[in-house]
Amino acid sequence: MMNRVFLLSPLLMFIFIFTFCSQKEDTSVLVESNVPDTTTIASPAPIIIVIEKDLLYNEYTLADEYPYKDTIRSFQWDKIRDLLHLLDSVQQQHNSWAILQNYKNMNGVAPLVKEFKRNVYKRVADMHGVERFQSVPLFHPADTVTGERYGRDGSPVRYLGEEGGLARVCLLSSDEEWLVPPKYVKVIGDTITFNHAVFVDRHNQNIATLEKVGSKWLVRSMNPITTGLHRPPYAQETPLGIFLLQEKKQKMIYHKDGTTETGGFAPWASRFTNGAYLHGVPVNVPRTTPIEYSASLGTTPRSHMCVRNATSHAKFIYEWAPAEKTVVFVLE
Questions:
Q1: Distances in Å between the alpha carbon of 36 and those of 15, 29, 80, 120?
Q2: Can you give the pLDDT at residue 19?
């Protein structure tokens, strides 16, 4: 199924406003696009995406299409190919990379932007729905006094230098430039290569990990997950977008809702934005021993922003995916 070559058109929109529908996989056709490249991310040569299955983790592996209740779920390979095309396109250029960072407001509370509202969680958010808490202010080059919108913690950006004491950056999925106070920007340099990618599918409640080896993207795992649940005031959706894996915790301690009391731990946790982790099955107090699998995996959203995996799969990601070099795509 996966031993194919694809020449793809660039991704023209942010991941969080995808509107195209998933298409059924054709297992034998070479797909080529005749649409000219009209994006501002210039490619010196056509981008050819080669995806093959070469699993490193083969527990609880899902098929490309599989039944769920009275419907069929699938891995959205068309969207995954477009995102890999985007990633390979920007990496053809000579870029200095950086990460927008403000986990737990450690770099200071972001100032209010021009237009904002209070969401159902009673927190300030911009008009795109990005909350002020744990976010980064993005200033339009024409107005460095009041921020235009918020950028999510963990977002990878192309670092374009400093201008008037502000960092000039460009989001991975856009050619629009923003100015950001330097305290919110961690520069990771111009020698980084993003060869590890994780695709979290909120719609189908599955996850795929891919690794670029030579000219090919190899599928390393295909597994069931559960993502974040929209349930104010505590549980929240896993945000759509493009992020970098930022830090790892063998045990991520969490609190009982609305308290500072320890509720338990999530094993093999890899954080990619705000308080969102890829982790194993949560262990609630008073239990102290890990839980390998939950029957709820692959069903419906139920976590607090995080992406819940089988514990051994979370450990695989923890050990396989390098921090600040692994791109996490959350798609619908």
A1: 21, 21, 20, 42
A2: 33
